TrEMBL record:
Signal peptide: none annotated. Its main location: membrane. The chain crosses the membrane at residues 238-262, 375-395, 429-447, 475-496, 502-521, 533-552, 558-580, 618-637, 643-664, 676-696, 727-746. Residues 286-338 are annotated as: Disordered. It is a multi-pass membrane protein. InterPro entries: SID1_TM_fam. It comes from Oreocharis arfaki. This is SIDT1 protein. Residues 328-338 have a biased composition (Acidic residues). Residues 305-315 have a biased composition (Low complexity). The lineage of its organism: Eukaryota, Metazoa, Chordata, Craniata, Vertebrata.
Amino acid sequence: QVDAVRVYVNSSSENLRYPVLFVVRQQKGVLSWQVPLIFRGLYQRTYNYQEVSRTLCPSEPTPETRPSDQIIFVDIASMAPFNIAYELLVTRLENFQLETNKAFNFTASPSQPQYFLYKFPQDVDSVIINVVSDAAYPCSVVSVQDIVCPVYDLDHNVEFNGVYQSMTKQAAITVQRKDFPGEQFFVVFVIKPEDYACGGSVPSSIHGNVNRTWNLQRTKNLQVTIVPSIKKSVYVQALFFSFLSFLSFYLGSVVVAFVHYISTDVKLTAPLGSVSIAGSGMMTSSHPISASTPEGSSYGAIDESSSSGGRQLSSPERQPPAGSDTDSSVEEESDFDTMPEIESDKNIIRTKVFLYLSDLSRKDRRIVSKKYKIYFWNIITIAVFYALPVIQLVITYQTVVNVTGNQDICYYNFLCAHPLGVLSAFNNILSNVGHMMLGFLFLLIVLRRDILHRRAMEMKDIYTLDYGIPKHFGLFYAMGIALMMEGVLSACYHVCPNYSNFQFDTSFMYMIAGLCMLKLYQTRHPDINASAYSAYASFAVVISLAVLGVVFGKNDMWFWVIFSMIHVLASLALSTQIYYMGRFKIGECYLGIFRRAVMVLYTDCIQQCSRPMYMDRMVLLIVGNVVNWSFAIFGLVYRPRDFASYILGIFICNLLLYLAFYIIMKLRSSEKLLPIPMFCIVATAVVWAAALYFFFQTLSSWEETPAESREKNRPCILLGFFDDHDVWHFLSAAALFFSFLVLLTLDDDLDTVRRDKIPVF
């Protein structure tokens, strides 16, 4: 048992010119202070205390010597020309050493700090110091210091040594045996003279003697409990769980690919013959394709006269589809002028009332594919230039935390922050492995489809040219890279999450949502989708707005007014582009824009008030604008503090709205949902619902002070290693993967359908 002594002094003197000086001399050091004891706050405000209580640095008998009495010298002096009364009391502390798994209650104040000793048990390598209080204020500091005298236990020096946290109602510090060669440490508790550091009120600037406060009552009741942390075996279990969970996705993908290969092989060896379509699905024919085709004939042309079974392959020329459901207005337009120049003019094609995929896939396939591959190469370039400085910055943050001991720099869930090496919260980093593994798996799946499609093209399979959705994989590759980079940058952010690096965790989420919307639009508009350069430039603008919103969006009304105007105007401009299939030129002169807008209102709202020219598009855009304007009004009125999540919510709602519209229109057009996309849709909905539940379990918030953020900390919920936010990482990775598969497989049923039969919406 370690003996400790506490010295209590009190002086009735309020003369700051002649304080009473107390000097305590021990075998290991000297401790001194004055009464009145002065603490300084903001704006030169001073807080004076006439009662002071300090714990002396304890002496512990060594194994070589026998226990002996401690010799302590207390020197008291004052330069006052008159007598000053004081009171001195020296007591022996009965409960100086803290015990494992046993709560200990005590009180502290600015002039009467407390500290206690803890020794590691033999079988414990790591412990968590849990400190709780019923009252948020006064603001306090919890520090862990090595067994060194003197102990820094006052407000102005508690940050000089060890590891420390500010605290309102809760604090937690993980301590490892390897960091303390003596296998013991002090736990120090200091009460701050002011509360602004913990989010309390900031004292006003007052000049004169009013700035001086005497004997302010700032006593806080605290409870400290030291519990053993997890063992090394839990780290191993967590590693196996993380990797095996996502390796199961690889196994499932292999099984699906193998089943698809077997079913394809069976159909290829069928007696009637068949034609393979790259991607998924097979198209059977009633007659096998001849090895040689006469010159001038149309290879693999389809005779639509057959109404049942597979589509027959006809000879020399393709006949116009019988029973076509093309609108009569289109037929009249064709009868009016059949000149090839008119028919091929995109201004004429894209303004048809009823568009089909063949109308918007007229450009050379190779040129369009190269255009979409730019998305892939650009995102790799962006990822490299973005990730390198990010990694360097977070390493610097972690180094600063480890060197200074200031745990207020990073906003962890300290009740579930498991260190490994130099990393303070390894579990938050490990849980991002799912994004990287599933992103790579998605790239492999896309690569397989790409290879199958190329093989079909090399065989000059006519069905890969004239049937189904055009196969352009550049955006899919970009989505896979974006998912992997989201895992990398989210892991970097969780090395030291704080106000300065929040955009690391959200930047690629914006890009993923944007790329998904672009891919969904590209599916049936391959010729008029946005270029990679304009798309990534738009993402850069969004990320810049997110940064500005976090900096200025809390209290500045002017920012919300400007942002809401940009949001509404961007929605209107994009709606016009979508409604007219890119034929509305934003770059026209202003007079031309106004003239065109007036014509649009006249033709679609006055002449055709009962039915717009493009009804389906109009419904989608009206609902989309209502949603976006609602977001703009909500932001303008409530000004949410988490601006980054607000922007992400706008992206996700628009993506979900467009996906729902796409699926509804697909079913309206009598198209099918095959089993695999149906499974992916259900899995996406279920996993996203579960993921969002854990996302809204807020465990920390860099929008508040570190002490206030720690009030939200909660213990681990999975394997004793992962917290709610880690589960969000796992589930969101799976949800994004299934979402990507939905976009990849949604139109597999159209692989056997002519493009002039596939409607555009």
